[in-house]
Amino acid sequence: MTLKVKNICCIGAGYVGGPTMTVLANYCPDIHINVIDKNKDRINAWNDEDLSKLPIYEPGLKELIKKCRGRNIFFTTKVKESISKADMIFISVNTPTKEKGVGAGQASDLKWIEASAREIAKYSKDNAIIIEKSTLPVKTAETIKEILDASQRKLQDRKKFFVLSNPEFLAEGNAINDLEYPDRVLIGGDNEFAIQALIDIYSRWVDPKKIITTNLWSSELSKLCANAFLAQRISSINSISALCERTGADINEVSKAIGTDSRIGSKFLNAGVGFGGSCFKKDILNLIYISNFYGLKEVAKYWEQVLKINHWQAKRLSTIVVEKLFGTITDKKIAILGFSFKANTNDTRESPAIEICNSLIEEGAKLSIYDPKVNREQIEKDLNLKENKEFNFHSGIGSWQFSNNISSASKNADAILILTEWAEFMNINWSEVSTKMRPPSWVFDLRNVVNIEEAKEYGIKTWRVGFEEPNK
Ligand code: NAD
Ligand code: UGA
User: Which residues contact 156 (CB under 8 A, 6 or more apart)?
Assistant: First the structure.
């Protein structure tokens, strides 16, 4: 049996569905792809003539959309039509942490997965290949299979489905590159023909040696583990950054010294404000939930610690800022440079900047926030606080305002905090910025990206994560 794929549907036009399908469309011009989403505004944004209005900012995405949109990739809200024509259906919907009910605060909320499975059961054709692209708890494929079967009452008319797991490993800000040159493609399944159909698609641009096939459960679990291991490295290096600050060891030198051991490797050893993003926290919480579910309390506790250190890092850095500014930041102006959870994305989900800004506002600071890609409305939503365009420096009440650039953010500021590693912050013109700030002016480089020696030359006091305090 050969399963030919001429038409693909992807449910979910988010950070994964949009870029993944666009890259697929680019390499498979003969395949017609419909990306569907229940969020009409998001679909409209994907279809906007003005490519700067795409719902997601990713380097290289605009160019591919320009080439493929309307050729063989279409963004639409037409659920029935798109699912019914598809030979292969990717489920790429959100799987956040459950907010209420059993497992609240830890387990994944699978209601969007379930809704997708029900729609597939209703509209899809016989022999459709269903792909789990979303990150899911191990054993979810069983649930999907059950929904697909149970939704069809008449046994004699039952459609056949093949369910595969094909988790996505792209990192935001580097999504197009990760999709075009993946370290590996993971396919879990129990039907060789369905697996081959997916291999045939990826092998158009991925070296077949990089395509790993496993059983369904290994594939589902590997995705959660990969994120947990990456997050664990960040918590490890952040815990060491605190030790460096006390001992005079230099975190960059330590990272380099340990990272050159080929067994450890050099990537993901940058100390900072702690990891953010929509996935690390939720996936570790999910791992903790699953471990407890299977009675593995020690395993659960081990992973809990990764989250605890992450939270501790953001908290301790906020406290250091307050301490350095003579123990009070009430009515002081602080420039926040960077609000997204990492560089090259407009995504602010779980950004450490949110927690840090909120705690500074609570202490009475006036924040002037600049990020190259995050807009005013998003910051307002994340801080759950309206922008205050006119600072009243005698109110004692913390507030924030939006800035369009580094220069306006730093005007009259007592301190600058670097929260995201945007390239722009590596080349700050300290000669200009130092004249705008109020002395004694500080820069807190919480990402280790700033040209700190130059800042010092212009009389700015400096503090860097993972370095002994120079201004004691
Ligand atoms: P997202 O929130 O950006 O996008 C999900 C989209 O699915 C939303 O636009 C939502 O409206 C839509 N949706 C939900 N239910 C639907 C339904 N029944 N019908 C139609 N549309 C529906 O989420 P995301 O960041 O793209 O993540 C999706 C999944 O991929 C998650 O499981 C996540 O863990 C995983 N993942 C994310 C990344 C990442 O970098 N963001 C990377 C790898 C894996
Ligand atoms: C991460 C994984 O890297 C992807 O493989 C995975 O597909 C994705 O999660 C997912 O499942 O959603 P992402 O969160 O987009 O990707 O970005 P990362 O580059 O992993 O960064 C995550 C966070 O860790 C960011 O806040 C980043 O600033 C921080 N980080 C990263 C550090 O603090 N130090 C580092 O050395 C690396």
Answer: none
CB 348 within 8 A of CB 369: no
Is pLDDT at 429 greater than 60 in this prediction? yes
Enumerate the β-bridge partners of residue 163. 130
Any atom of ligand 1 within 6 Å of the Cβ of 36: yes
Q: Which residue's CA is the nearest one to ligand 1's atom 9?
A: 14
**168 CB within 6 A, ligand 1:** yes
Alpha carbon distance 117, 140 (integer Å): 11
Atom of ligand 2 nearest to the CA of 420: 28
Bridge partners of 336, per DSSP, are: 369, 417
Q: Residue 274 burial (CB < 10 Å; 0-12/13-18/19+)?
A: buried
Among 375, 370, 372, residue whose Cα is nearest residue 407: 370
> Mind giving me the DSSP string for 167-193?
-----TTSHHHHHHS-S-EEEE-S-HH
Instruction: Work out the average pLDDT over 146-172.
Output: 87
Cis link prior to 440 (omega < 30° from 0)?
yes
What's the CA gap between 33 and 19, in Å, rounded? 12
For residues 279 and 316, give the distance between their C-alpha atoms in angstroms, rounded to a whole number: 23
Q: What is the pLDDT of residues 21-62, one digit of tens each?
A: 999 999 999 999 999 999 999 999 999 999 999 999 999 999
The CB density around residue 343, as the number of other CB atoms within 10 Å, is 20
Q: Which residues neighbour 245 within 8 Å (Cβ) at sequence distance 6 or greater?
A: 465, 466, 467, 468, 469
Q: Model confidence over 77-86: pLDDT tens digits?
A: 999 999 999 9
Q: How far is the CA of 306 from the centre of ligand 2 (A)?
A: 14
